[in-house]
Amino acid sequence: MDGDGDDDGLVAALRRRGLHARWLAWDDPATERADVVILRATWDYTERFEEFLAWTRRVRHLLNGPEVVAWNGDKRYLLDLARAGVPTVPSVFAAPGEAVEVPSGEVVVKPAVGAGSVGARRFTDAAAARAHAAELHDAGRVVLVQPYDPRIEAGETALVFLAGRQSHAFTKGPLLPPPGSAAALDASGTFAEETLRPADPDFELWDLGHAALRAAAERLGVTPEDFLYARVDVIGGADDPVLLELELVEPSLGWRQLDETARDLAQREFALGVESALDRLGLGPLRRRGGYRRLGRRQRGTLPHRGPQR
Fold first, then answer.
1. Rounded to an integer, what distance in angstroms lies between the CA atom of residue 213 and that of residue 268?
2. Of the candidates 114, 113, 111, 158, which has an alpha carbon nearest to the alpha carbon of residue 254?
3. Intrachain domains 10-85+151-174+190-281 and 90-148 with the same fold
4. Is 296 helix (H, G, I), strand (E, B) or coil?
5. CATH code for the domain defined by 10-85+151-174+190-281
6. pLDDT given for residue 174 in this prediction
7. Residue/partner pairs of 280-284 with CB below 8 Å, 24 or more apart
């Protein structure tokens, strides 16, 4: 087993720091015997959410931690960030049995637990939007309704943080097609195809990313440095950036958007973040005696070449 392609250099980066690492499917029983499990490409977790959450609580030590996964795996975390003053795309949620509020204008309707834009659709017709929401409700899903922000046509800016520190950024082209059609998925059916490019965002966007991390850390009773990795997806420019997603479970970190030198340095920072986490967990000596570090990957067989994002 191996990673998703984008993470190919992580195992070597960890081993250069004396950490034994290898890829395992998250539901491989061996993960529960590992000293530390690092979540990376566990993209089928949304289909098995309760099972996945139960597994996160059985693992000895998980990065990012089980409380982070439980909070961030459900998009209702956006309400917490908005209440904390983080500018976010307006979001309304409705559980099965609850009425779905559809604002006027173009909207996006998607499941609150989901990844890779699967189940996400754009609508200009309120009746069609409610019909899609009813289908999600029938499947037992909580529904998220957001106004469609046309600035997303310029793409999203993905801000990558490692151990609470800003690392690098890249842009993602728009995923959702016009109203009336579903997103084109890759051959695995796991995520919508993406177009990625390197980016050098203005500091105002990075400020929003830092604010989102601080708010999330305060909500969870940790510090931003406790997040081994984080990705903040932002739309808009320096004059009015808005948070679209905060990714703390399994985000693609865009390593391949960096040149070789920058990628090696960033992945070294990732490995140093793992070392810091081991020290916080009281596992520092394990590194010197060859303890195991497992990188959790998705359960299904063939991995797509690039990570999906919710």
1. 21
2. 158
3. no
4. strand
5. 3.30.470
6. 74
7. 280/226, 281/36, 281/61, 283/35, 283/36, 283/61
Alpha carbons 167 and 86: distance in angstroms, whole number: 21
Q: Is 138 exposed, middle or buried (0-12, 13-18, 19+ CB in 10 A)?
A: exposed
> Does a cis peptide bond (omega within 30 degrees of 0) precede residue 72?
no
**63 DSSP β-pair partners:** 38
Domain residue ranges of the chain, discontinuous segments joined by +: 10-85+151-174+190-281, 90-148
CATH of 90-148, one of 3.30.420, 3.90.930, 3.30.1490, 3.30.70: 3.30.1490
* Residue spans of the chain under pLDDT 50: 188-190, 287-293, 298-310
- Return the amino acid letter for 279: D
Residue 186: partners with Cβ closer than 8 Å, 6 or more residues away: 192, 193, 304
Q: Read off the DSSP letter of residue 156.
A: E
- The answer to whether 143 touches 137, Cβ cutoff 8 Å, is yes
* Helices within the chain (DSSP H only): 10-16, 49-58, 66-72, 77-83, 126-138, 203-220, 260-280, 284-288
| Residue 208, strand partner residues | none
Q: For position 195, what pLDDT does the model report?
A: 83
